[in-house]
Amino acid sequence: MERTAECHCGSLKVIATGEPERVYLCHCQACRRRTGTAFHFGATYRKEQVRLEGERKIYERGADSGNSIRFYFCPNCGSNLYWEGDRNPAVCGVAVGAFDVMAFPPPSDSIWEESMHPWLGLLPETIHYRQGRPPGA
Ligand SMILES: [Zn+2]
Ligand SMILES: [Zn+2]
User: Can you tell me the mean pLDDT for 104-133?
Assistant: First the structure.
């Protein structure tokens, strides 16, 4: 199974092979500002499952954990498709909304719900965290 995520203009692509390790939602303020929408919908893959094609720029910032996190975005249209962090260098993240297929596993967990829009309803099986996912969870 191969899925391709693509930026708004189509020049940056992220090709992911196999199933993601984790699919989740993040309601933190940084993700809401980064995406411009109510929450971030992300999939975590092992880095060897994912390859990038096309020009990209990188925005790096410190995460609340104290580690650095790098966001890869298209220099032409600005879509953010991919990220990686120093907290867990074996994995990377891909923006689920950018994939070309509707069939994607639903989120297993939802983080930073302390800043979630109160009208948002989630699946009953979702695991909820008021802040980030604790290490080892
Ligand atoms: Zn683009
Ligand atoms: Zn977030």
Answer: 94
pLDDT tens per residue across span 74-103: 999 999 999 999 989 999 999 999 998 777
Distance 30 CA to ligand 2 centre (A): 6
> How far apart are the C-alpha atoms of 11 and 20, rounded to whole Å?
23
Cα end-to-end span (Å), the chain:
27
Protein residues placing their CB within 5 Å of the ion ligand 2: 26, 28, 31
The Cα 41–Cα 61 span in angstroms is: 19
Tokens read off for 131: 């802040």
Was domain 2-128 assigned CATH 2.170.150.70? Answer: yes
The dihedral over CA atoms of 117, 119, 125, 130, expressed in degrees to the nearest 10, equals 30
Q: Quote the pTM value.
A: 0.90
